[in-house]
Specification:
The structure is a single chain. By secondary structure, this protein is an all-alpha fold. It has two domains: 3-62, no CATH class; 71-216, no CATH class. 56% of the residues lie in helices and 3% in strands. Strand 1 and strand 2 (25-27) form a beta hairpin. Helix 7 (190-203) packs antiparallel against helix 8 (208-216). It is elongated. 26% of the residues are buried.
Length: 218
């Protein structure tokens, strides 16, 4: 039986016209659109996933649905001053994804918010770790916290150390980057996929300062 004559295995009603690499089966376009990154754990190279993301970005732009951004954090001068710390955060998130395949954008947002709470508490003179609850989030939190602790207390005493306010700014910018991606789909990895592209380009010795905004902004 050809795919066009099969019934979709998810709804068992409509014709199965699209091959779903996650399900290894043909499904209908409606289920593909409604269930992607909700019930279906879509791989990053799925062509329908990419076209769906492009459509959603265009729709949000038409409706004026854009997350608020902190203007000074998106200024090139801020990025230039803090690019080493920013790229360290991004690379650590990217590496954590390779160790935790179930990591999704929502986990990253939660961890960044928890870390920001930890450093805001520290800025007030009190140390309290706002560690998240799930194992996946704890692993990412620990990796980022370790990076930040090393940057703030480097072995090389002559190295410059970021202030608490600088750390908070870099965490906030990374969170705003994550918030630009679709938050309505619980299994979304749109931000993580964008971050992977940025880290890969940086590894090829391309300038992250030149390339990052083009990749980050929808």
């Amino acid at each position: 039986m050809t795919p066009s004559k099969r019934k979709c295995p998810l709804c068992e009603a409509r014709k199965a016209k699209r091959f779903c690499p996650a399900k290894q089966a043909h499904i209908c376009p409606v289920c593909c659109g409604q269930k992607r990154e909700v019930e279906i754990d879509c791989p990053a190279d799925c062509v329908y996933l990419h076209s769906g993301r492009e459509y959603e970005r265009s729709r949000r732009a038409r409706l004026g649905e854009r997350e608020p951004l902190t203007a000074r954090l998106w200024d090139r001068s801020f990025q230039a001053r803090h690019m080493e710390l920013l790229t360290g955060l991004w690379a650590t998130i990217h590496e954590s994804r390779s160790r935790s395949p179930d990591l999704v954008d929502g986990d990253v947002r939660e961890v960044l918010e928890r870390l920001a709470r930890t450093y805001r508490t520290l800025e007030g003179g009190i140390y309290y770790d706002h560690v998240p609850d799930t194992l996946t989030q704890k692993a990412l939190y620990g990796s980022l916290k370790s990076l930040l602790d090393k940057r703030r207390k480097p072995e090389d005493l002559s190295a410059s150390t970021p202030k608490t306010g600088d750390v908070l700014d870099c965490l906030q910018m990374t969170l705003e980057m994550a918030n630009l991606s679709d938050k309505s789909r619980p299994r979304s990895r749109e931000f993580l996929d964008r971050l992977s592209t940025m880290v890969s380009q940086s590894a090829k010795e391309q300038s992250p300062l030149e390339d990052s905004p083009k990749i980050v902004l929808p």
